[in-house]
Each structure stands twice: as C-alpha cells, then as structure tokens.
Here is the input.
Amino acid sequence: MTATSVGALLLCRADPVTVRPVARLLQERMLLVPAGDGWSVLVPEGKPWRKDGHENHGGRPAEAGAEPVDRVVGGWAAALAVGSAWPVLALWWDGDRAGYTLASGFRRPVGYIWLADGTPAAEEEAMRTSAARLGLDPVMDVQALEALTRADPEADADARLRGLLAVLARAGVDLPPGLSPGEPADRLRSVAGIHPEAEQIEWAGWRDAVRVELDAVESGSLGPWVLGPRARAVAAAQVVAGVPLALWGARRRSGGWIAAGLVLLVQGLLGFAYDRLRGTGGGNAGR
Here is the structure.
C-alpha cells in the first residue's frame, strides 16, 4: 500500500442481473463484473474521496464535497443493500488504513479497520456479526476471521483484506485477476474494463430508472416482492426511512447516504405503484 493507492470495491451477494437496477439508482458511473457463484463486484469509475478531509493523496486539492473513501463506499453499500434481499460488502483502502463495511437490509452496518501496517483497530465482535450476516460457517470461517483481528507483524492492511477474501472464497467469491486490495482506483477501473462480461452502470435519468426498477420487480430479481398488506407495509417503511436519511445525508454533504435515502424513497414509491397496478388491475396474484 502506498500513498496513492486509494481504492474501493463493492462486493454484492447477488448476480449482475439482480444488482444492475439498484446500482443505477446510485447515480454513479461504475463497472459491474461477475465475482464468483452468486456474487458481483462494482468498481467505481470516479474517486469522490480525499485524505483526512483536506487533500487527495498526491497533494492535490480535494474536490468540493469530497469525503474519505470509507464514508463514501459505506453510504453506497447501505444504498445498495437497504432495499434489497442481499448484503453488500464494501472493501476500501487508502495510505493510512484499510477495512470493510458490511450493509444488510435495514440493519446497522458493521465493519472493521486495520492500520496500514496491519494493526487491528476495531472490535473483534464485528467479525462475528459479519460472518453471521453473510451466512458463513460459524466455526471454521469465524475462526479464520478472528485470526485477522489479532496482531501479526507479517501482515499489513493489504494482507488483511486478502485474508478476508480468502475466507469469502469458501462462500463463492472469486474476484477477477487484478481486482486486488491495495491497487489504486485507476488500476481497478482499467482491469474491470477489459473483463469480457463487464457492464457499464451509469445514471440515465429518473424515467429510465423507474422503467428498469419496475422491470426488476416484474422479474422478481429484487427479492420477495408481493402484493397486498405486506407489500404496502414494506413500501411505507421504505418511504418513512428514505426521506430523513436523504435529508441527513444532505446535511452531512454525504453523497452515499443521500443515495441510500433516495433508493429507499424510490423503491417505496414504486412498491406502492406496483401494488396498486397489479393489485387492482392485474388480478389477485400474491394475495
């Protein structure tokens, strides 16, 4: 890891077809690539982060509204996971630290941080919580994860993240060659771009977002969508949570958390629309 090695990867426990419609709602340019059996990875094309809240690595002035990389990708992970049936693991690193944030539904995100030299800087309990939410083996996998929370002078922050990925490999994760912790964002983008199954994810406006989201609902790729009282209750919860979350993100000038609020709001409103359309005009399926 060097001072210019700032980067992030978003591991989603779902296939690209399922991830695509939700990822577009982030309004960020990303590359979507398969990452193993039942996994996908999103590689950001932009770099809306900075070091220590003042400068980008390399001494360049930070862009207006920029944030530390962990806060940015933590917001993205929450936005992707909060309205979905699958968890998102954001891996991130800069010249000083590395770590991950795990987002899963409406639950509070959990994560872990290591200093650049590999020194653990978080509570061990976070690893056990992460293992449970990812459905990992409660004995072998948890033991392997807990080893990453103990001192090891031979393991720097990059090695810690590689150790995490080695455990996740038993759950099906298989990142394409070159998408490795510690690589700078430009390198990650270049590697992802030449993958034969890479897809460009970009914002195409609300009309297209609504169409894509409704198509995803029809196909069932966003999870157990149903009609009737349950669907309306879920939609109401999404709207109620989405508005204050977006406002909170705006106050903190956090693009990731603004996106999380907007994703919730859009999915809630679409849930109401879909239930009304299919419940009154499309028969009684799902009741």
